[in-house]
Amino acid sequence: MDDTTVLHESQIPANSVRVPEPEPGTATMVHRYQQDRAVVLHPDDYGRLIEDSRLVAFLGQVEPMPPATPVERKTHALVSTPGAEAPVLEDFDALTAWLAYAEE
């Protein structure tokens, strides 16, 4: 996993700072000199943020699927068409005939 996409954390002893009580679902922005300095999150929200960060980092590494073949496109179109009956392919001859049709 790329180290730049993962959220890192550091801890400060509670006696070193004054922090408002975090509310679930609310991010409290801490400002100083008209600039954002920190964000206070509820521990549950922080856990969700960490999980989302890991998921985004993982998804950034997933290889895209190769383009669909003509048979795959035809099959998808057939089964995705409302009211269309999918062929029942019970034997080898029916399957090869359908595949030949799908490649057209």
What can you tell me about this protein's structure?
With about 100 residues, the chain is α+β, with helices and mostly antiparallel strands. It folds into two domains: about 55 residues, no CATH class; about 35 residues, no CATH class. A two-stranded antiparallel ribbon has the order 1-2. The protein is rod-shaped and about 80 Å long. It starts with about 25 loop residues before the first strand and ends with a helix.
Offer a concise description of the structure.
With 104 residues, this protein is α+β, with helices and mostly antiparallel strands. Helices cover 38% and strands 11% of the residues. It folds into two domains: 3-59, no CATH class; 70-102, no CATH class.
Q: Summarize the main sheet.
A: 2 strands, antiparallel
What does the average pLDDT come to?
80
Number of separate strands: 2
User: Which structural class best describes the helix and strand composition?
Assistant: alpha+beta
Low-confidence segments, ≥5 residues, pLDDT <50? none
Distance between the termini: 43 Å
- Shape descriptor reads rod-shaped
Helical percentage: 25-40%
Q: What series of H and E elements makes up the topology?
A: EEHHH
DSSP helix count? 3
Radius of gyration: 27 Å
What is the count of structural domains?
A: 2
Beta-strand content estimate: 5-15%
Q: Based on the structure, what is the oligomeric state of the protein chains?
A: single chain
Strand order of the largest sheet: 1-2
